[in-house]
Design goal:
About 20% of the residues lie in helices and about 40% in strands. It has about 80 residues and is α+β, with helices and mostly antiparallel strands. It has one domain: 2,3-Dihydroxybiphenyl 1,2-Dioxygenase, domain 1 (Roll). The radius of gyration is 15 Å and the shape is globular. Strand 2 and strand 3 form a beta hairpin. The mean pLDDT is about 85. It has two helices and five strands.
């Protein structure tokens, strides 16, 4: 597949690593006014950011070392297998 044939329609979710889900949740909900959607184990909290979902990931949700230092973008695609090919 050529790069021009890839169909990324929009960003679906942004994952942000945080040291404390509770502190980050308070900031995004109470200070910035984002709508909290739900929490999920082991240490995740989800918010609506104008139609894009934001996932806060605490250390327990960041893999074996719990030290992820970067955000992750999840794109909405029409056909994941075709896009990956």
């Amino acid at each position: 597949m050529t790069p021009s044939a890839v169909s990324l329609s929009r960003i679906k979710q942004i994952a942000i690593p945080v040291h404390s889900v509770d502190e980050a949740k308070t900031f995004y909900r109470d200070v910035l006014g984002l709508r909290h959607l739900f929490d999920a184990p082991p240490a995740l909290s989800f918010f609506d950011c104008g139609g894009v979902q934001m996932m806060l990931a605490g250390p327990a949700a960041q893999g074996k070392d719990g030290d992820q230092q970067h955000a992750v973008l999840f794109y909405d695609v029409t056909d994941i297998k075709e896009t990956h090919a």
